[in-house]
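Hi F.,

I've been meaning to write this up properly since the lab meeting, where we talked about keeping a consistent format for the predictions we share between groups. The idea is simple: the sequence comes first, exactly as it goes in, then the structure tokens exactly as they come out, then a line or two of notes. No screenshots and no reformatting. I'm using this chain as the first example so we have something concrete to point to.
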Amino acid sequence: MKEITYQCQNVECGHTFVATLEVSRTVSMSAMPNPEVRIPISSRAFLAAKNQMTLDLATV
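Output, unedited:
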């Protein structure tokens, strides 16, 4: 999760606020995964990764 500060560009307004940015799920698997990082994976990405692993084993 990351906090981002925004400020209105209208000088007369001056509204400043903080928003948060958060990772929801993995859509495409990393080619260099870090085992210490846990991000939920979408069912579509999981199936794609599972199918890729099956294909790799079949060609060995």
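Notes:
Helices lie at 43-59.
The mean pLDDT is 82.

If this format works for you, I'll send the rest the same way.

G.
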